[in-house]
Each structure stands twice: as structure tokens, then as C-alpha cells.
Amino acid sequence: MLRLPGQPPRLICRCREKYIARIEERMLIELHCHTARHSRCSRIDPVALVKRAEEKNIQGVVITEHHYVWKPEELKELRVKSEASRHFLILSAQEVGTDFGHVLVFGVNESLRRNSSMADLRRDHPEAALVLAHPWRGGSSPSDERLTSTLLDGVEVFSGNQDVRENCRALARWHRLKFIATAGSDAHQVSAVGTLPTYFDHPVETIEELAEEIRNNRCRPYIKETIRSGGDTSVTKLSIGTKGEDEKRYRLVLRRTTNGENFDNYMYRSEVMRAVHEHGFSIGRYRVPAVLYADKRERLVIEEGMRGTSLYTILSTASREAGIEVFGMSARWIALLHRKKIHVTGKQTTVDKERSRFEAYRDNSVRTNNPHKEQIVDSIDFVQSREESLFTHAVNQFVQCHGDFQPQNILIGQDRSHDHTTLFVAAIDFGSSYEFPPAFDVGYFLAQFKFQFKGQPHIAERYPEDEFVREYVAEYGREPSKEFWNRIDLFRIRGNLSIINYLILIGKGAGDDVADLVRDCAKLREKVEA
Asked: The dihedral of CA 499, 502, 504, 510: what is its sign?
């Protein structure tokens, strides 16, 4: 094909006496959908189906009615009525009931009978692609032998007819068994069309070509998958399918571990997240991800994925006007949490965790013979003595705190890119959450904020600490007592000690950062004792 000088790569070539779009090497195709014309279970008008699919910016649809294949003249009529782009692919296959369950049959031009035998289908139609449809639906768990059967060409892993848990189990089996996988919305309503397309490596024009691509493993579910693993844990972030009308994509975070203690920690944080989510943090300006599923046997926790940018990144890169808004919203997020007065973990958990934490801090500073170990231990003793007093005299003031509320654990997102009213703040990582006085989260945030932006002094000028506290107080709803301000400084020391311990553990205990933090602890102690 001749390419003119300066011509962009989006070319239309003449092929087989018709124009075919070679816009991209890949194709996104909806492989599983039904229409009201030939499937009584569907509410979708065929014309609306095609129009919706084109709106989703996918390259084609395969209509898969139950035991019915559209005739060529029907497909031609649909193309005309829907005013589909000449490059948009409209094909037909069928969903067939078999002794394996429901199977999508691609590349057979005759309507097949119900209760077909898979062995007969394979024998009679060797060139067809046979894909097991929604096999995890309704809590089913297909055997490894079924999923890898030579009678099948593929398995529908992600399906709109499976819930989140079932789709995640399907993903795990796909990764383990490495069979050919597809996705499909199984659309029966127009809003579902195109949400779970399948990605094809090469363009196709006919149902026969599509079947060949499936059989040869040149397709896969349309997902973006990021895996971070280390030791006995892994975190998988998934973006599945296409965006909907609200610009949202199906997002999940899968946390898996082989270590029982780590799984207990996952369950601990999940319990807190569920409680916070149920107390008004599910939608709107202030949010926390939902915990969707937890399985002790699989040691798997599935959370709602959230698209956003950390507060740290926003404050480092955005204009002051944009930054000051989300800086204040972050303060209001934590104030709202405190105002809800949620109780999940109980006082004794706080006592046990803090005593254990301080013991580890002491051991690490002494074991490494840190040059500031005496001052560090002295600060630990001071904070711990004050906390012990709180455990005795102020436990009625305790509420569920975040525990690690800091710029890198705060996400800033916007549901619709052109609608500023959909801006939201979400907090993540509740692994250190327990009940404490509200001043804990405020003091801890200020300590982390100061340290994280130590090398960017202009950030502290743009976003003064007083502004954060002012926004917090405004949301909390009443003027704090003198005791509150005193506790903020106490917990700033506690935040500094957390940072010092981290630096010691990564081999930076003798550096200038620790020396500066030790001096800051001494100054804050003077304020607390004044």
C-alpha cells in the first residue's frame, strides 16, 4: 500500500474490492450480546445495540442469540437501519446449551439444537470456535479438566453475567491454567453493551476469521493488569473493559498472601474499611474503597479500585489554587471520620499495638547503635507515658482513627473529567487504623507532611499547616480545647518517631534526616510540657 509523504498512519486501504479500516492493528469486539429480535430474555433493540457499541468506541459486535444465527440479509438490513460506519463489524454467532453448560459457537452458520453434545459439536464443526460461557455464574466452580478440555477453544473469563467475586476467581484460574480466554458483557440491556469487549491482536472481517483468531489464542479480555509482588504477598490492580457513560471503568484491587498472619492483617483493615464505608464514605466528596470480597481459604481480599492521584503528587505539581482546595478537602475528610465517632477495633487493640510498636522502636535504635539512640529512647518514653495516661483517663474520647493519614495515602479523583463537582477525596491503607483521640491523625499528618516535603520548602509556604487545621476545625464543628492542641504536638512527636524508625530500618539512621527529626521532637516536647 502506497503511503504519501507526511500522511499519518491512520490509513484506509482498498482490499477485496471494498474499503476496510486499518485504523489500528488491534480490534475490540463485543463477543456476547442478545437482542429482543431473537432472544426473548433481551430488551435490546438491534439498532440500539449497534449504535451503543459504536458509541463505546469498539470496532465490532457479534450477536449471540440463543440457538439462532442471524441470516446475511438480516445483518445487512441491520447495518442499513443502524447507519453503522462501513468499517464497523457486525457478525452473528450463537449461544448453545450443551452438556458442558452454555457455549458460544463462532463460525457455524446454521442454528444448532438445544442440549447439544460437545463431542458432537467438535466433530461436526472442527473449524468453529467453541467458548465456554460464564462458567462461574451463580457460584459455580468448573473443574480444571473442564476448563482445559480439548473440546473447547476458549473460556469466557470476564462476564457481565458473573459477579465481582466470580470474575476474580475466573481471573485466578486463567492465570494458573493459561487457557485461551475471552470476555463478554452478555448484554440483555443496552447499557451493558461493549462494557467487556475482547481484544483481538489482528483485524478480522468475517466470522470465520474471528473463529480462527480465537482458536489460535490471538485474543484476550480487554484489561489492564498491574501486579506488585514481594515475599509471600501480591497486589494486583485491574482495570477491566471500557468506560461507561460516567467515565468509570470496572476497577479492582486483589490482595493475596500465602502467610496467615498477613491475611489476618488484611482482614483487620477490611473490617475497618467496611465500617467507614457504611458510615457515609461510599459516594460523594469523601470516600473509602469498598471491600467487595474476602476469602480465608484463598487468602484473598478484593477491594474496589479507585482512579486518582495522591495528594503528595497534586501538591507537588498543581497550581496553588487547585492544591489548596484538595489540601482543605483532605483535612475535612479526616475531620468527618472523627465526627462520625466510629468504633471498630476497641481500646485494648490500641494499647497492645502501641506498646508493641514502641518496644520495636526502642529495640531498633539500640540494636543498630544509632548515634541518637539516647534521645530517641527518651522521646519514646515520653510519648508512651503520655499515651498510657490517655489509656487510663481519656478512653471515652477515643474514636476510630485512620492511623497512617498522610499525603501518599490520600487519593484525589474526579468521576467526570469535565465536571469539577465530581471531585472527591479518598483515603486508602487502613492497616494501622485503631481507636485514639482525634488529635492523633492531625498530628501524624502534620509530621508526615513536613518530612515528605522537606526538600520542597515552597510547598510549606503554599500550604501552611494552619490552613489544614483550620479546615479540620470547620468540618469537625466545634472549637477544640487547649488539650486538643497539646495532643496534636504530642502526636507529631509520635509521627516523627514512626519516620525515624523507618529510616533506621532502611539503613539511614545515621543521616541528617534523623538528626533533624530528633531535634524537632525535642522542640515539640517543650511545647507539650509548657
From this structure: negative
